[in-house]
Amino acid sequence: MADREVWLSRLSVKINVGTHGPHQHQVLHLELTDEADPFFLYTMELGEAEYHELKTEQSLLVDFQTFPSRIIELLEHTISGNGDESAKFICSLKSSPQTNEAKLFIVETNNFKHLVHLTLRFRAGNDDALKKFLAEKLRQFKASALDYSERLYRTETDLSSQSVETERLRSELRRLNEDHERALAQAQLERSQALSGKQEEYLAKQASLQRTFDEEKQRLEKRMDSVVRELQDRKST
Questions:
Q1: How many CA atoms lie less than 13 Å away from 85 in the CB half-sphere?
Q2: What 8-state DSSP symbol labels residue 6?
Q3: Beta partners for 33?
Q4: What is the pLDDT of residues 105-119, one digit of tens each?
Q5: How far is CA 175 from CA 164, 169, 189, in A?
Q6: For a FRET experiment, which of 17, 120, 130, 188 has its CA 20 to 30 Å from that of 47?
Q7: Strands 101-109 and 114-124: what pairing?
Q8: From CA 202, how far away is CA 189, in angstroms rounded?
Q9: Where would I find the H helices in 41-126?
């Protein structure tokens, strides 16, 4: 229709396979949501019997067990674009407010035509479904907020512990520096004292040698004087 409203939006697709009924038949559940609109909710349930009808209607070649993974592959193509500018996949959702239904088309577009690979029929969520959906979103939000709060508390605790440990290490470093300075000063003092002691020892030895030299000199001078007098006495006689 010419007056149909068209907009672009990033939708989330949730796919879940479960069982239903007393015979535990497998059921494929799909959910379309929009993070920007909390009241946007479309759901689809597809049992094995309904899938066989869909398979025949759309000429699908996969069985029910493989179908969910094939949906994921097609959706991934719409996200990645396959890196080919001439051919790409797009997702198109056409809704009808009168019937509360919508059709999701996964389409491959190229320069020649638009090829619809898959069409899925969704129904807009009723009041009960919206309440359950919003309650679940609120629960998830509260869980995320609690998890964030706990992680923030752990982070703050870790930072506080690290701060205490950092201050302890700084104090230890200051103590080591002070011990090093004291040890260095003590070593310098001992070296100075050792040098002073050696100097005193050297001066004492020098004085002792000087005394010995003077004494020996005086002894030799006396001996020489005695020898000279003796020679003079002999000469005069």
A1: 0
A2: -
A3: 12, 41
A4: 999 988 888 899 999
A5: 16, 10, 21
A6: 130
A7: antiparallel
A8: 20
A9: 48-58, 67-80
Q: Answer for the pair 5, 20: CB distance below 8 angstroms, yes or no.
A: no
- CA-CA distance, 2 to 16, in Å (whole number)? 36
**In this structure, are residues 17 and 68 in contact, taking their beta carbons and an 8 Å threshold?**
yes
What is d(CA 217, CA 223) in angstroms, rounded to the nearest whole number? 10
pLDDT digits (tens, 9 = 90+) for 74-87: 999 888 765 555 66
**Residue reference for tokens 């950092």:** 166
DSSP H or E run through 20: strand 11-20
Burial class of residue 29, CB neighbours in 10 A (0-12, 13-18, 19+): middle
Tokens 């290490």 — which residue?
169
Q: Which residue has the tokens 């629960």?
A: 139
Two tokens, residue 3: 């007056």
Q: What is the DSSP string of 106-150?
A: EEEE-SS-EEEEEEEEEEE--HHHHHHHHHHHHHHHHHHHHHHHH
HSE (CB half, 13 Å, CA atoms) of 218?
A: 5
* Pairing assessment for the beta strands 25-34 and 88-96 based on DSSP bridges: unpaired
Q: Which residues contact 81 (CB under 8 A, 6 or more apart)?
A: 88, 89
Q: Is the pLDDT of residue 2 over 60?
A: no
Q: Are 75 and 91 in contact (CB under 8 A)?
A: yes
What one-letter code names the amino acid at 6? V
